[in-house]
Amino acid sequence: MPYARSGDADIYYEQHGDVPGPPLLLIRGTGADGTRWMPQVEAYRSEVTCVIFDGRGVGRSTTTPPPYTVESMAADALAVLDEVGVEAAHVSGSSLGGAIGLHLAAHEPDRVLSLQLHSSWLATRGFAEYSLGLLRKFLTVGGTDFYYEATLPLLFSPIYMTENFDDLMNVLTHMQANAASQDGLLGQIEANLSHDLTAEAGRVRVPTLITVGELDYVLPPMFSSELHEAIEGSELVVFPGGGHLVTLESAPEFNRVTLDWLRPHLAA
Predict the structure, then answer these.
(1) How many distinct structural domains can be found in the chain?
(2) 19-77 residue pLDDT tens
(3) Cα-flanking dihedrals φ and ψ of residue 170, to 5°?
C-alpha cells in the first residue's frame, strides 16, 4: 500500500485517474478518511487525476499522540505531494481540510495552483470556538461511539436526515464499526481549536472557490463569508438547504459547481 513518510507518521494515500497535468489534492475534515471524497473522485477523475489521503490519526495513517496542528497536518499533505512527485497541485479541502489547504496556499504558494475551501473557516473564535469545543466534549465525555452519534445531526440538514434516515443510520453503524481511535480524533479536534490564519489569509493569490451549505450548523455561512472577504478575488457559493457535509448531501450539485469552476484552471 502507498504511504508517504511525514515526520513520525506514515500517511496513506491513493491516486485515482491518469490525466496528464497537475493533480487535484483532496483533503478531508475531522475524523474522516480519504474515501469520503469518492463521490467527487468519480465525477472528477476523467478530467483531473485525484489524490486522496487519510489524515494523521484516521484510517490507515499513523495515529501519533495528540494534539495535532493545522501546520503539522499541512506538512503531511506536502509529504503526499512529494511522494507522488508533484511540485504543485490544485487543492480542495473540506472543513479541517479547508484549514489545511488555506495554510498551504498562504505558506507554500508555489505548491498550490488553485484552492477550494468547503464548509471551512478562518479562525477559531466565538461561535466556532464553542461549536468545535463541543466536538471535543462529545469525544472526551462520551467516547468515540457517542461522538459519531452526537455529530450526525450537526453534519446533515434536517430535511436530508429525515428523507435519508435509514441510510444514515446504516452510515452511522459503519462509522462506529470503523471508528478512528480516540487519540486520532482528539488530535484532529485540537488542530481545529488552535486554527487561526487571520494574519496570513491575505497572502493567498491563487484562484479560490469557497462553498458552504446554507444550513451548516458546525461552521455557518458567516465563516465562509469571512474567508471570502479575507481572500482577494475569491468566489463564494452557498448551497441552499445544505448542511456541513455538502460534499455528500448535495453531491451532484456540488460536483457540478466545483468541476465547472475548476475546469478553466486545469487548462491554464
Answers:
(1) 1
(2) 999 999 999 999 999 999 999 999 999 999 999 999 999 999 999 999 999 999 999 99
(3) -70, -40
Radius of gyration of the chain (CA): 17
**d(C-alpha 223, C-alpha 264), whole Å:** 27
Burial of residue 268 (CB within 10 Å: 0-12, 13-18, 19+) is: exposed
The predicted-structure confidence for 87-116, as pLDDT tens digits, reads as follows 999 999 999 999 999 999 999 999 999 999
Query: Are 246 and 218 a contacting pair, CB within 8 Å?
Result: no
What residues are paired with 12 via a beta bridge? 3
Contact status, residue 4 vs residue 11, Cβ threshold 8 Å: yes
Give the whole-angstrom CA distance, residue 72 versus residue 79: 11
- Is it the case that residue 176 has pLDDT exceeding 90? no
Residue 267: strand, helix, or coil: coil
CATH number of the domain encompassing residue 162: 3.40.50.1820
Sign of the torsion formed by the C-alpha atoms of 240, 244, 245 and 247 = positive
